[in-house]
Amino acid sequence: MIPKVERLHGGKPLIERIESHPWENKVTFNPACVLVEDKGELASIISTLPFSDRMKKQLSQHSALCFLLYRAQGKKTTEYDYTRSSMGLAVLTPELELLARHDEPVMRPERDYENLGIEDGRISKIGDRYVMMYCAYSFCQSCYAIRIALASTQDFVRWEKHGLLKGELNTIDNKNAMLFESRINGKYVMLHRPMQGPDAMAIHWAEADDIFGVWKSKGVLMKALPNPEFIDTWIGGGAPPLRLSDGRYLFIYHIGNRRAGTKREYDLGIAVADPSNSAFIVRRDEPLLRPETHAETNGDPELGVNDVVFICGGYFSKGDLYFPYAGADSVVLGGKIAKPELEQYLHS
Q: How many CA atoms lie within 13 A of 171 on its CB side?
């Protein structure tokens, strides 16, 4: 039985475009997120946030906060091309109620390897820092390139960029990269989705001794399941895997589908990974969520992206699973799987 997803706020957006902000007056989507519950860490982060003292005081009343990094695009002007994606910052309650939102992006496309935009970040805590793997979109040497890039932070405002991920797997178009927060068999483990080469458009995995060192591909982990409703189907990572109390991991991923012509639909699937099992992926069910509401089926009319649900992060809070997700590449929505639903799924 696939767990039921509750659409929060009646399916209405948590984050949407702001007309007066040039960098995000078109679309806001594909949010990464982190839940911070440690009292000392939370106080340190709040002190650095670019908000008023009054807002910081209000945030300090909360015992936990969700920090959300969302992808944003605006309209092209004579001064700047805001169609290039940047990342904005919002702060929400663990139940995904919006509390504060920064007026300026916290990450912009500034380097040559990301000169067409920074997209679809996924964040994991490694040690005392938060590491983001994101898609660096660029134009160089008469061709477009899509690569995995790295950045890290301790406060979600000041990001240190570490350049492109090292390893042969990043010499071809590649994206949807994310980390397991804990080492597996002594190695850091990453999921990624090559767009070229053997078993392209499937979820692969890779290992490294150092996150900022060289990554070695271990091959394909999950392939798309054929769906007779569509003429083509592929998959890619969603939220970084979430560790369960029994040592397994819960993994939500995305499923791309194409109908005849150019019409597409993006859904979500759910899987359980067990590092102690030779199969690694021990359960897989789909679809977990399909686009149904107006915000999920109708995107920005000029961009023409419809029928999409897309995830880049999630977390557990009091046993419930919360995940912000994108609707039709245009807005940020909120989803929840209640603890009883989740437990029934994991133990059935």
A: 7
CA atoms of 60 and 62, how far apart (whole Å): 5
| pTM score | 0.97
Identify residue 336 by its one-letter amino acid code. K
Residues in the chain: 348
Neighbours of 48 (CB within 10 A): 14
- How many CB atoms sit inside 10 A of residue 175's CB? 20
Task: Assign 3-class secondary structure to the chain.
Answer: CCCCCEEHHHHCCCECCCCCCHHHCCEEEEEEEEEECCHHHHHHHHHHCCCCHHHHHHHHCCCCEEEEEEEEECCECCCCECCCEEEEEEEECCCCCEEEECCCCCECCCCHHHCCEEEEEEEEEECCEEEEEEEEEEEECCEEEEEEEEEEECCCCCCEEEEECECHHHCCCEEEEEECCCCECCEEEEEEEECCCCCCCCEEEEEECCCCCECEEEEEEECCCCCCCCCEEEEEECCCCEECCCCCEEEEEEEEEECCCCCEEEEEEEEEECCCCCCCEEEEEEEEECCCCHHHHCCCCCCCCCCEEEECCCEEECCEEEEEEEECCCEEEEEEECHHHHHHHHHC
Q: What is the gyration radius of the CA atoms in the chain, in angstroms?
A: 19
pLDDT digit string (tens) for 6-55?
Answer: 999 999 999 999 999 999 999 999 999 999 999 999 999 999 999 999 99
Asked whether the beta carbons of 322 and 96 are under 8 A apart, the reply is yes
Beta-sheet pairing, 117-126 with 129-140: antiparallel
213-222 tens-digit pLDDT: 999 999 999 9
- How many CB atoms sit inside 10 A of residue 38's CB? 10
